[in-house]
Amino acid sequence: MGTALLTLLLTLLALAAAVPPASAAPRDDAGDAPADRAVYLAERLRENPVYISDQVPRVAPLSSAPDFRKQAARTGVPTYVVLLPGQTVLSDRQELLAQLHDRLGRDGLYVLLEDGSAGLRAETYGVDVPAEQAARATLYELTYDAGPLQQLTRFVDVLKAGDREAARRARAAAEDDSGSEPERLHPSRTDREDQSFLAGILLTAVPLLVASAGLLLRRSRLGRWVRLRFTLPAAVLAFFVLLVGLPMHYDDTRSSDDPPPSGRDLTARTERVAAALREEALYEDPESARRLSPKQKRSLSRRIEDLRVPVRVAVVPLTLNDESGGDGDYFARQLHRATGEDALYVVAQPDAMRVHVVNYGARLDDGRLYRYTEKIRYGSSTGDDDRPDLYEKLGELVGHIADVPSGPPGKPYLEPLPPDDPVEEDRLPPLYSGGELGGGLTLGAMGAVVLVGCVSAGYAVFGSVRSHRSVSRQTPRTALSGPGASGARNAPAKPGAGWLRRTARRELHTLNEEFREKSGDASPVHRERTWKCLDAATLLLDQEGDGRVDADADAPTLATALVALRAGQAALRAGLSKARKEEAARICSLNPLHGPAAGRSTFSREGQSAARSQPVCARCRTFLSGPGAGESAVNSRLLRLRARRGTPYVPYDQVPGPLSGTGACDITTDHLVDDVLEYLGVH
């Protein structure tokens, strides 16, 4: 009997040891490995297949979640959507989707959306839909002002069109070199001002011209009575038609289709972080890649709690689309109001780019407190990936706070200004408002009077004047149809800002993807050169640091970035072909947008007093060696740019910027990168 009981007991113990726990937390064997962000997001997706961050309420408020779920349901397959601040996924977009699938353990379509214009990412696991083609078509078909909801809607529309149509649209959008950028989805405030100005001109000029049309009947037999009888009512009718019709035509009321946030949307993140800070002194955003290991976080928390004044630290991303408009000082003020606790508030970005320290009632000497070093404020490059070290920075800040002597209850160094109201900043003013309308009314009346005076000066010459005004002049363009076998790239001789912006955005995306996928196979020299070109182009195109091509980037900046991108593409392809030649490639001096030079030709162009040997691409060299390559023909292929809108086209090396003065020498890829960094003040 005793032996049987002992045998039964041993069997039960063996079975219990073989059964794993029902749910296990992420392993932390060494005690200092950062927690997995994908685990947190996977748990949210397990609760709801569409997860929207509360950190981007200006473009995707939490209250708009039903709209995102509605679009996700249209795909016809299990779909999991995650919308995060672009700042949190700059380096691991594709990897994050794979991690989410691994943690969630469910097949389906996984979509990652961001608050910027970097486009969406999509991956399929166990389902057959053209996700990659749909994502590419969405990227190229939409303009930079399209928000996350518009991107998801277009993505699903292309996805539902089928494999063949999705592939066709992706290929057509990527290969479109027409030079025209897709129209904005909605007008900006500047566009509305232009519309008001045009409306004012039409409201005065058209009725006055209609009324004065009777002057053309001056020599007819109908007489003055007939002229007044028909032209005056026609003028009044034209005025009322325009008065009513123009607002119907320009009927936009908002500059964006992004859902407007409610007051609760704008306080959701603040309340979440404030609730956490009531429980712990150091809060780290779970949606961002963790920069602090559990061991580092425990160490910092103990040091913060040992300080003689209350200190609250929030490690969260700051973007233009959050409730604070990217202002860490303002976010600290909102945390103080939400917690209701007087303390020293510290707001640090996960990438450690900047730390904001704001005193709300902590008894410290403010004069000493706010004199923390630039190293603490902006960080030092210590990591292998050349990023500031957050743990080191916060540790030095805590040490600085400990050394600050006591003082009266503190206050902010400067009171932060409230950000723009997200509803008001997207609301367009009425068409009939603003000083632009008055200017248009005045200009329209003056123009009509001048025109009527010209008409009355002689009916006989009116037709001749009209014919002269209809004459248009053609502008030469370089007839390049594509890269071709020669390696020369497609580029007009007089590119507009729209063509440059659209092409630069497309080629920036392409080079990013090619570098991520293929740089490991390239030679070290070419890989480094490609990275420098990509980095220089990114600095030029995204000087605001919001993950999108700057809307106010001028033509010289866009052209320089495009030259750098094409030089980077050529360097990467040379590295993949295992080219022995490792010196920096020279760039076509006739039109740098053509890409690297293939040889040299002797010629002179506008701005050069004598012919000289200069590097040119294969197509330009063929052109220069053929008949008819006179100076005027050469100048027709010369790249010309506008310094700003409304100014004439001039040779590219006469426009202020990194390309200035390069046409007179052999500019190489390395020289171009150095000139860009010097121009931007980056060392």
Describe this structure in words.
Helix content is 48%, strand content 8%. With 683 residues, it is an alpha/beta fold. The strands form four sheets. It has a four-stranded mixed beta sheet, with helices on both faces. β1 (50-52), α3 and β2 form a beta-alpha-beta unit. α5 packs across α6 (148-160), α8 runs parallel beside α17 and α20 (524-541) packs antiparallel against α21 (555-576). Mean pLDDT is 80; it is low at 1-34, 219-226, 381-387 and 462-486.
Layout of helices and strands:
Elements lengths: L1 H17 L18 H11 L2 E3 L12 H9 L5 E6 L8 H12 L3 E7 L6 E5 L5 H11 L6 H13 L2 H13 L13 H24 L10 H27 L13 H17 L2 E3 L9 H12 L5 E5 L12 H12 L3 E6 L6 E6 L5 H4 L4 H5 L11 H14 L18 H5 L8 H23 L4 H8 L27 H22 L5 H18 L13 H22 L22 E5 L8 E5 L1 H8 L5 H7 L2 E2 L8 E2 L17 H12 L3
Parallel strand pairs: 1-2, 2-3, 5-6, 6-7
Antiparallel strand pairs: 3-4, 7-8, 9-10, 11-12
Helix pairs in contact: 2-4, 3-6, 5-6, 5-7, 8-9, 8-17, 10-12, 11-15, 19-20, 19-21, 20-21, 20-24, 21-24
